Amino acid sequence: MRVLAVETSCDETAVAVYDSHAGLLGHQVYTQTDLHEVWGGVVPELASRDHVQRLLPMIKATLGELALTPKDIHGVAYTAGPGLIGALLVGATVGRSLAYAWGVPAVAVHHLEGHLLAPRLEANPPAFPYLALLVSGGHTMLVDVQGVGCYQILGESLDDAAGEAFDKTAKLLGLPYPGGAKLALLAESGRPGVFRFPRPMLDRPGFDFSFSGLKTAVWLALKAATPSADLAADLARGFEEAMVDTLVAKSERALKATGRSTLVVAGGVGANRRLRNRLTTMAATLGAVTAYPRTEFCTDNAAMIALAGHERLVAKEQTSLGVMARARWPLSELRPPGQMSVQIA
Ligand code: KG4
Ligand code: ZN
C-alpha cells in the first residue's frame, strides 16, 4: 500500500508518501515562520490561509518528484488533531476530498501519534515498548509507548509546553520568534551558576511538569538585574539548565518506574543539544539507550503522519466521508489500528 499524507496542524504545511515495502518515498515541509515572525507568534487565521494556498501545489510537486500519479496512491492520511482548528480543517478537507475523488480510503491521524512513532522512520527503529519524552511547542509529555495505538501518558505539562516556555523566555530576552533554538545558542556563551532558577515540581511525586513559573522567574530576575553585556546570555543559560534538569529528572524517574530500556525523544525541543547530551548520559547510567529521530522528523512533518496512517490503513481503518478535525483530541482515546470507533465497514 502507498499512502499520501498531509499535515497542517499548526504553522508547517507538509506532504509525504509512504510505501509498505520501500518505507518513506519522499516528503516536503514548508514552514510559515517568516509569516508569523512579525507578530511574535502563530496567527491562526494567517496559518489557515497559507495552508490553503500551498497544500495542493505541494501535493502536486511531491507526486511529480516521485514520478507518481494519483493512480499510484492507495490511501490518504491527514492530521485530524490536536492543533489549530482552522489549519487542521484545510488538511482534513483536502485529504478527505482527494481520497473521495481518487476512490481510495482516508484515515484521520492523531498528530501526537505521529511524533511518538517518528523514530520508526529511521533505519534501525527502536522496538516496542519504549518510553517517549515528547517535547514540542504545543506539548510536553512522558508516554509509555507499548505498541501502535497503545499509549499510556505518565505525565504532562500542567501549563506551558517546554517549547512554549523556551519561546516565551526567548521573547523576554529580546529574541525573535520562534526563539527556542536562538535561546539555546545564546545560552552557550552564558556563564553557568550566575542565575539559578527553580526546577519546577521536582519535589513532588509523579511525572507532571509545570513551566510557567520558570518563565516568570526569568522575568523577575531580568527586571531586578543591572543591565550588562552578559545578562541575556547568563539568563538564557540559567533558564536552559533549569529546563533541562527538570526534563532529565522526570525522564529518569519514568525510566526507573517503567523499567523501559529505550528512551525516545520527539518534538522540536528534542533538537536541543544540552538536553540530548544530558538524557544520553542519564540513560546510560541506568543501562538504557536514547533514540532521537533526525531533526526533520522531530519537528512537524508529514512523514510521521504517513507512517502512522499507513499502520491504520493496512488494518482497514478508515474515516467516513465527513471531515474529521478536532482542536482537542486526548491521546488516551486512541486504540490499536483497526480498533478505533471511526472505523467503517
Ligand atoms: O515539534 P515542533 O516543531 O512544533 C510543534 O509541534 O510545536 O516544536 C517547535 C518548538 C518551538 O517551541 C521551538 O522553539 C522549539 O521547538 N525548539 C527548540 C530548539 N529547536 C526548536 N527549543 C530548544 N532548543 C532548541 N535547539
Ligand atoms: Zn508537533
CATH topology of the largest domain: Nucleotidyltransferase, domain 5
* The CATH top-level class label of the largest domain: Alpha Beta
Mean pLDDT comes to: 95
Terminal Cα span: 19 Å
Shape: globular
Number of domains: 2
Strand order of the largest sheet: 3-2-1-4-5
What does the main sheet amount to?
5 strands, mixed
Rg over CA atoms, rounded to whole Å, is: 20 Å
Task: Report on the architecture of this protein.
The chain has 345 residues and is an alpha/beta fold. The protein has two domains: 2-116 and 298-333, Nucleotidyltransferase, domain 5, CATH 3.30.420.40; 127-292, 2-Layer Sandwich (Nucleotidyltransferase, domain 5). It is 41% helix and 19% strand. Helix 5 packs across helix 6 (180-188). Bound molecules: 5'-O-[(R)-(carboxyoxy)(hydroxy)phosphoryl]adenosine and zinc ion. Zinc ion binds next to helix 4.
